[in-house]
Amino acid sequence: METPCPTEILEQFREDHPEITYIRFQWQDYSGVLRARVLILESVIAQVVKGTPIQAAGIALDCTVDNHILPRDPPRGMHWAVPDWSSLRPASHPGTAMVMCALNFTVLERPLSSDLCPRQALTGVLQKARQTWELDFLVGFEVEFIVMKSDPSSNAMVRCSNGLGHFAVSGLRDTCFQYVEQCVTRLRAQGVIVQAVHTEGFRGQYEIVLGPLPPMQAVDQLILVHDYLKDTFSRHGYEVTMSPKPIASESQANGQHMHLSLQPASSTLEASFLAGILKRLPSLWSFCLPLESSYERRKPRMAGNTVGWGTQSRVVPIRKVEPSHWEVRCIDVTANMYSTLAAILGAGLLGLAGKEPLTWPDLGIPANQASFCGEPLPRSLDESLAILNADDGLLSAMIGRPMIDHYINIKRYEISQMKEMDPQAIRELLIELF
């Protein structure tokens, strides 16, 4: 069956959704912030018919999480949006649709380049996996979040969901849970695969478990879920946050655990694939935990603190769930999931290419856990960026040196800017964004 052309897709979408006026052309920048240009639907159709490219922005991948722009010598050039029309969906906001985009970049008369685009980096890694090893993947996410509200007396954000966590049914009676159910109903109507919803953490934290999809669709689905959560609760005067540590005085933290499985499952490939990831885990942390506040989760049962894996073990960064299926626990919502997933899968493919042995013991076995002393993982973003910059694991062979260099430049500039900010102001910014 032939794939419909963009014009046909848009005309059918307009017929199916006559209430839609706006389309958000969205991309996730290097700081994990979702950004977009908003166009009128009729204008979009006219541009597509004429074959006119859609501008994103010259600074599309140059912004830090606190909205500063990386200093550059002009000319900056322009990023152009490359919509993936298969991701076109009604957004949570009425009258608006969203479509996820790759980005091409050009300076003056030079040819278009995709070297800096996280989405296209992931596409490239997936193509290498298929071409060389006939390998595909399934990915699913666990979305942890806390409901907060502005406190008029202190003008600060405070937790307002207080139900008991750790799967306690009493936590489902919290007033906030009705809006969780409302959000899940709306998401399922959009075709999102929701497997489970439950209380998490100590008090006031919830988790939505998303079903597995191919990697690109899984990340697109995750971004849709974030949008619906944020929008649904804001309509009722609340703020949902997935930020890693929203309240400094509380131990409660949010992760964004990722389930990853080889397709087809392979007993001959899984050991070297896992070895490739573990060998490069200190570098990968710069993508998985991309803010200084992310490292508040550097402890067992959260992100972990040493390189290691274990069958059904939650004290290490990677839990083996079943053959060829792992849970990567050292990720939070501030990560750009396209580049993060490209880096993780690329590391696994490097393990396959080098037939790297799995020398790390299974820490799900108590005897191994008692005797094993693993390599400490980076204690800060600065430390993980330095390891990535050295790139002894040759991740650049998979995701490209231009992307690594630009990412390091953005993050180091971001660190310098955020050092000037009040720590509480940073937390509240992350609550707003994530």
Observed structural traits:
single chain; 434 residues; alpha+beta; six-stranded mixed beta sheet; 21% strand; globular; Gln_synt_N_sf; ligase; glutamine synthetase activity
Notes on the protein architecture:
The protein has 434 residues and is α+β, with helices and mostly antiparallel strands. The chain is 35% helix and 21% strand. It is built from 13 helices and 15 strands. It has helices at residues 6-16, 41-50, 118-133, 177-189, 215-234, 270-279, 281-288, 337-353, 366-371, 381-390, 396-399, 401-418, 423-433, and strands at residues 22-28, 34-40, 54-55, 78-83, 89-90, 96-106, 136-151, 156-159, 194-200, 205-210, 239-241, 258-263, 309-311, 318-322, 325-328. Helix 6 (270-279) packs across helix 8 (337-353) and helix 7 packs antiparallel against helix 8. The longest helix has 20 residues, at 215-234. The chain is globular and about 65 Å long. It starts with 5 loop residues before the first helix and ends with a helix. Belongs to the glutamine synthetase family. Keywords: Ligase. InterPro entries: Gln_synt_N_sf, Gln_synth/guanido_kin_cat_dom, Gln_synth_cat_dom. This is Glutamine synthetase.
